[in-house]
Design brief:
Low-confidence stretches: none
Mean pLDDT: 91
Largest sheet: 2 strands, antiparallel
Strand order of the largest sheet: 1-2
Shape: flat
Number of helices: 37
Number of strands: 2
Helix content: 55-70%
Distance between the termini: 77 Å
Number of domains: 4
Length: 736
Amino acid sequence: MPIARSPFPSLGECYQLLTTAFDSKSSDAARRKQLSDLAGSEHDWSLFAEIKRDLLIEPLSRLDREFAEELETFIDYLQEHYLELVKDVGLDSLNREQALPTLVQHYAGLTGDFLGRLRQRFGGPELAHLLDPDRAPLDVALCWFEQQTGDSAQPLARRIYPDSKDARDQLGRWRKGTQPAALSSLKSLLKALSNVSRQPLLVANLGRWLVTARALGHFDQAMLGAGYPGFRQQVLHALLLASSLQDGRQALEALNHEAGQRLNILKPGAQWLLEHLAPDRDKSIDSQAQSRQVLDDFIKLQSRYDEDRRTGYFSAWFEGRWQLLSGNYSAALEHYDTALEAALYRAGRFQLCLLQESLALAAMLGKKIRLKQLKHQAVVLGLFTSLGLKQNPVISDWEISQLKQLYARLFPHAGFFPQANPVKQPQTLPILVFDPAATERIKVDLQHPNRVISVYTQDRQKRRYPQLVWFASEGQAEAVSALLQHGADVNLSDEADGSALLCALQRAQKTGERATLDLLLAQPHDPATLNRRTHRKQLTPLMLAIDSGDVELVAQLLEMGASANAPGLYPALTPLYNCLSKLCQLQQPDKTLEIVCKLTRQPDAVIRDVLRRYLGVSAGAFGQQTPLPPEHPLYQIALKTVLDLKRERCTPRQLINIGHLLLRHGGLPNTPHAYPCPGRTPLMLAAEDDELELFKAMLTAGGDPRQRDQDGADCWNIALCHGAHRVLAFLHSAQG
C-alpha cells in the first residue's frame, strides 16, 4: 500500500509553487525538468540555489532588481524557518490535506510581514484592500495607481491601448479576476504604460505590486480550489490578530496530537521496539525471536489502523534495525532507505536519527554513492552546511572514516543479537593516541628516504606517513636531519595532506621544541606545499605561525613562498582576516567569550561543521553533540581557559606587526569572506574592532572603506554600529 504524501510539502514542491505563482519559469526546458525532479527527489542540494536564481530571481530582476532582491531575502528567511520547522515538529499522524490549512495559517503571518516591509520601503496600495477577498488583487494595484495619477479605469485602459479593443478587454478580465495575467503580459502592460505616463518611478512601483498581486491571486486560487479559505483572507486575519510563529507551531503540534489519538493502539508496540531494539542495549538469547514477533505484530496493527501508512517510516526503520542487529547489513540498508523516504518532511526529530544511522551504516558498507545521496539530503535539510562544498567532493574521505567510527559507537558489538555474527568495528578513542611499543620500533630507512610507513594507534587504527613527516611530527631532529641529507622530499604529505613542515610547526607549538622546525625551514619548499590545507581542519603553515604570534616565523614563511592571501582554517579565512580575528580575541576577551557562547548555544550548520571537524566522532554525524552543553558550569571555565592560553601565546603588538608584514607581502584588505558575515573584509573587521593602526595601513594598501558587505554595510556603518570611536574619528577627519 502506498504511503500518504508527506504532510510538509518538500522544498522542491515549495519552489514549484513559487515559480508558478510568479509565473517566472524559464524557457529552458532542462531547468524546468530539474525543478520537476526536485519536487520528488532531493539528491542534489546545489540545484535549489541555481533554480531559485534562474527560475525565480533573475526573471523578476529583469522587471525590477530591487524588488527581486527583497523577495530573495524573504525567500531565504522563509526557507530557513521552514526547514527548522520540518526538522523539529513531527506530523506523523497527519496527511497533507489535514496539515495544509494550519501550515498556511502559520506562514500567512510571515507573508503579511513581507507585504508590510514592501509597502514601507516602496509605498503601495493599502494592505487591507489588497487582501480583501472580495476584490481582485490586480484591480487593487491598478486602482492604487489610478488614484496616484488621477485616472479612472476606462481612461487608463484607453490611454494605454487606444487602438486595441482586445487588449482593453484583456485588461478588464484581469481586473475582474476572471483571467490570470502572465508575467510577460504584465511586462508588456508596464512598457505600454511607461510610454504614456510621465511618472516612471510610479510605473516601476506598480510593476512590483502587479507581480505581487499576481502571486497572491495564484495562492488564493490554489487554496480555494482545494476547498480551503483563500490565502489573502488568512494573511489579513494573521495581520489583524498579530499571530506569532510560536502560535502556528503550537497549533501544528496540537493538531498532530489530536489526530494521533486514533493511533494510540500503536503506541505500546512502538515504545517497546524503541526500548528493546535500541542498538546500545544488551540482548539476551531470545531477544531476536521476541523482537521479531513484536515487530510483526506491530506491522499487522499498523496495516489495520494506519491505512495510508503515515507511520510507515517507523516500522521500516525498526525492520532495518532488526536486520542490522541480526548481521544482515545489505537488507538493513534497504529498509533504512525505505524508512528515510517515508520519514522525510514528516517525522520531525526522528529524521536526524534516521539520517545519522543511515550514514553510519552506508559508510561501514562502503556505499559511497548512497553516502553522497544521503549527504545531499542532509544538506538540503540544513544538517550539513553547503559552505565551500562546491569546491570539494560531496563527501570526503575523512568524513567517511569518521562515519565508520561513528557506526562502531552507534552499533556496539554488545548490542547485536547473540545469534548474529556482526562485523567487528574497533571502538575508537576520541583522540589519536599512538601505541608506544609500536612507535619505538620504527627506525629510519635511509636507503629509501621517501618510504611510507604504517603506524598503529592504541585503538588499532592504521595511519600511513612518509618517514620525514612522521619523524618531524615526533620532534626527532636527528632522524629528520639524516633523511634530509639523503634526499627526502619535503613536499610529500600524509593522508591528511599535512607536510613535514606543518607537523613540525604543530610540534613546536605544543612543546616549544624548534630543532626539527628549524631544519625544515632551511629547506626550499614548493609554494603549493606551503599553501596546502589539511583535509579536515584546513590548516596551513602560515595560519599556524600567525596563531603563535611569531613575527620572524611568519616573515620566513612569506619569504619562502607562502601566499599572504591563501585561505586556510575552517570556515576559510585569509591570513590577514585571521590575524585580525586573533587580535580581537586578545584585545576584547569578553566580546569573544560572548560571541562563542552565543554561537554554541544555537549553532548554525557552519558551527556544527566546525565541531565535527575538531571534535571528531564525539560530535555525531552532524556536529549536533558536544562533550559539555554550553549551560554547564564547566563550559565557560574551559572556554575562558582556552582564551587565556591564547593570550599567553602572543601579544597584541606581535599580531599588529604580523598584520603589517602580511600587507607588505601583498595581503589584500578588500577580500570578502563568506562567514560569519557574508561579504565582510579584513578592512571591515578592523573597523568593527577599532584597530586604527591596521585600518590606516590597509587603507594605504588599497583598502576601500566604501565597499559593502552582503547586508549593505560599509566601514562607516560597521564602525558606527560597534562604537569604534577611533576609526570613526579618523574617517571623519579624512573626509574633512
